[in-house]
Amino acid sequence: MPASRTSHPHQLAVIRGDDFRVSQGANQGDVLTGASDLVLDDQYTLAKDAPAEVLALHPGPDNLFEVADGASVARAGAQLLLEARLCMMSPMGMMMDALLLVETNTSGANRAVFLHPFSPLMPGVPYALVDIDPDNARLFFAQSGTVSLGRGTLITRAGGQQTPVEHLVPGDLIMTRDDGAQPLRWIGQQTLRAVGDLAPVLIPTGTLNNQNDLLLSKDQSLFIYQRDDRLGLGRAEVMIKAEHLVDGQIITRQEGGFVEYYQLVFDNHQIIFAEGIAVETMRITRRNRTLLPSQMSRRWGAAIPGHSDRPHAAFEIAAAPFGRESPARLLRRASRG
Length: 337
Description:
The strands form 7 sheets. Strands 1-4-5-6-7-8 form a 6-stranded antiparallel barrel. The longest helix is centred in the C-terminal third of the chain and has 10 residues, at 327-336. 7% of the residues lie in helices and 36% in strands. The protein is mainly beta. The protein is globular and about 60 Å long. Strand 4 and strand 5 (64-67) form a beta hairpin. It contains 3 helices and 23 strands. Residues 1-6 have low confidence and may be disordered.
């Protein structure tokens, strides 16, 4: 199976199918299996001693993946099939989504089953299987790992106008940090359940000198300029993921209900201005290119200059270097010098 060797593998927190058994229902006593054997309304319970595991994956064509070095639960080079998106309901009525991945051997027989839940599953709690969606699993995988802005976010256009992201259309000229005015090529939109990893990050008005509340996905990176290197990184400019800014007090995750996300695509990966804050646009990867219209994807081909070469990689930091201090307060001071 061809897989990207130039991109970093995607790290997914998973539980083994052997640790997730039917505690009540038609398949009582059975472990989690492939999608064809699942029965709706069966209740699954996570074992109390189930370890936290990690899958490192390179996306391939269709719903196939290859395990990369760094996985704790499967051998490098193994092939996985993304079989379905599962929706499960807790005893309190909370709905949560998960992806079902099955390792296969050369004959196609199942070897191992993994579940990637987007919200933590509690040991000993029964979760009812309420939906099995084999058709949109890859699309859901793409949506869950894509940088996105919430509905209502004001975007700075070439003339300085502030336009809500949902009102933008392809061809609009948007102000970028590095290349001036650039035409918007595509805008994506999804409505997702705002639970767990899919819940947006809220940066309240004024926290980072933003004009209004800024709602964005956890993987969305912000471009930060420090007048004073408060982060101790030896450089003034850094890109930090929104999830690393969450302190639970000032910058928070907004759980519950649904969130409407938008993605902006340009010919190159860009830094634009959302509510006055510099943020990245969607960089097309093997994971998220499923979101693009098929005609556009075919026209651009497998490698897209300005996207595949990770043009802003030098500014990215992999972790939150804040210690015990509030990220919002520290970054506010750093921007003032």
